[in-house]
Write a structure and sequence with these properties.
The protein is α+β, with helices and mostly antiparallel strands. Helix content is 50%, strand content 10%. The chain has helices spanning 2-29, 75-100, 112-148, 164-185, and strands at 34-37, 44-48, 52-57, 62-66, 160-162. Strand 1 and strand 2 (44-48) form a beta hairpin. Helix 1 (2-29) packs antiparallel against helix 2, helix 1 crosses helix 3 and helix 1 (2-29) packs antiparallel against helix 4. The termini are far apart.
């Protein structure tokens, strides 16, 4: 019963990790990290991401333009680019390592210790991927809040607000961290008990050899 529970935990952790990794990849390239609504022109909505800025018009036309220079970006966007790319790589590596350590796979079945180490390494790697996703998302969100409530900026100036990618990134980081934690905790399930060696059954020895009954009767004197 316990082994089945740990197997279900591994499957659940793997599903969470895959969902978090896909969401993290989408968040990286989605130009919806910040939204800007212009009061002077309500027909346009500006969206900013790590790689480009897009303008959505009322007719549904979307025009995007890539950032001109990497060095011209704010520090949080530059570091967020690097951390999100690192998170995507760590998430992929963690999923591969964890998949090799799952109980359902036949790899390294004769070496349960190696499967346990692979599963544990995959869980730790996925946890690191979750952290490297939450850090840039939270940093950009924090600076967005500071800029929104900046009293030195006149009220007439439009303010950037949270975009949809910000919330998707938070969910992605949480899924990666939760999946990695489940996989790391379920690594104990690969500790299969070593089967006991079959007892060597010794061939039964002749009972007479050990001081038992004599096989040959003693010769009796013939009496005439």
């Amino acid at each position: 019963m316990a082994g089945g529970w740990w197997a279900k935990a591994q499957v659940g952790g793997m599903l969470l990790a895959l969902l978090g990794w896909v969401s993290s990849c989408v968040t990286t390239f989605l130009p919806l990290w910040k939204n800007l609504n212009l009061d002077l022109n309500e027909l346009e909505v500006w969206n900013m991401g790590l790689w480009q800025v897009c303008i959505t018009q009322e007719e549904g036309v979307v025009e995007c333009q890539a950032h001109g220079s990497f060095l011209a970006l704010p520090p949080e966007l530059r570091i967020s680019r690097l951390l999100m790319c690192l998170s995507n790589g760590l998430g992929l590596l963690g999923c591969l390592l964890a998949a090799l350590g799952l109980e359902g796979w036949r790899t390294c079945e004769d070496k349960p210790g190696r499967k346990r180490r692979l599963l544990l390494a995959g869980g730790v790697t996925l946890g690191m991927a979750g952290i490297t996703t939450l850090v840039p998302i939270s940093w950009v969100a924090y600076n967005t809040v500071l800029d929104f409530w900046d009293e030195t900026v006149p009220d007439i100036v439009p303010r950037w607000e949270f975009g949809e990618a910000t919330f998707l990134g938070w969910f992605a980081g949480a899924f990666l961290a939760a999946g990695g934690l489940l996989l790391a905790c379920s690594a104990r399930s690969t500790r299969t008990a070593t089967p006991l060696a079959p007892a060597c059954h010794q061939a039964p020895a002749a009972r007479g050899l050990g001081g038992g009954h004599h096989l040959h009767p003693k010769n009796a004197d013939l009496v005439i």
